[in-house]
Design goal:
Elements lengths: L3 H5 L9 H10 L1 E5 L4 E3 L7 E7 L2 E6 L5 E7 L4 E2 L2 H5 L6 E4 L3 E7 H10 L4 H24 L2 H13 L4 E3 L4 H8 L3 H13 L3 E4 L2 E4 L2 H7 L2
Helix pairs in contact: 6-7, 6-8, 6-9, 7-8
Length: 219
């Protein structure tokens, strides 16, 4: 059974009436993915948006020689795959499960009917698009103004959130994709943080011991 509470917290759907929400939930499906499963590939014809119920997923782009750049990490409550609802173009990136994950997948058609009947709801779409543009601007600025060490510090802080002790939810290769650098250079940056005693590392578990310095290096 689809979790209506989960859908009600999705920014695109928060202003739907109870009747509209029931209609959307009735059309949705819950699907489970194993680590490495591809939810959709770049260029695929779009037909649904996805809400993360559990697990983590990577939204990534690949170069012609197979290199991957992770552009977003999706976790509980995040929505992705909505762009095709509005432009009808192929998927702009690949979505892949980083660990066993559960998604609520909502077909476009019932949503399209609701938006056509109530165009005022599109302000929620504009808000989401604006936030995505801000994130893109921030990532572009990072690529220009921060070196690999600075970008690595920033990504570790983002993955840690408010916690000092955290487990890296992705592999070193996937972290390198988020940073936009080779695995070797990212590992070298992490080793420098350990040497400076800004963090402690035990396999994929980390402990931030000097958040102030790590934050300063990420700016």
């Amino acid at each position: 059974m689809v979790d209506i509470d989960l859908l009600q917290n999705v920014e695109l759907l928060t202003h739907l009436t109870d009747e509209e929400m029931v209609s959307v939930a009735a059309s949705a499906q819950t699907r489970r993915y194993l680590r490495g499963d591809v939810v959709f590939a770049e260029g695929d014809e779009p037909n649904r948006l996805c809400v993360v119920s559990s697990g983590r997923l990577a939204i990534s782009k690949r170069s012609v020689d197979g290199r991957e750049s992770m552009v977003a990490l999706m976790e509980h409550g995040d929505v992705f795959g909505e762009m095709g609802l509005f432009d009808g173009l192929g998927r702009s990136a690949e979505a892949r499960a980083l660990e066993p994950s559960e998604l609520v997948e909502v077909p476009y058609e019932p949503l399209r009917k609701i938006y056509e009947a109530r165009p005022d709801l599109l302000w929620g779409v504009v808000k989401l698009v604006a936030q995505r543009l801000r994130n893109t601007d921030s990532a572009l600025a990072d690529s220009v103004f921060l070196d690999v060490t600075g970008r690595t510090a920033k990504r570790l802080l983002e993955l840690a959130g408010d916690a000092d002790d955290f487990a890296l939810p992705i592999t070193q290769e996937e972290l390198a994709g988020m940073v936009g650098a080779s695995r070797e250079r990212v590992n070298k940056a992490i080793a420098s943080f350990v040497r400076l005693r800004w963090i402690e590392q035990h396999d994929r578990r980390y402990r931030i011991t000097n958040r102030e310095e790590l934050e300063r290096r990420s700016r």
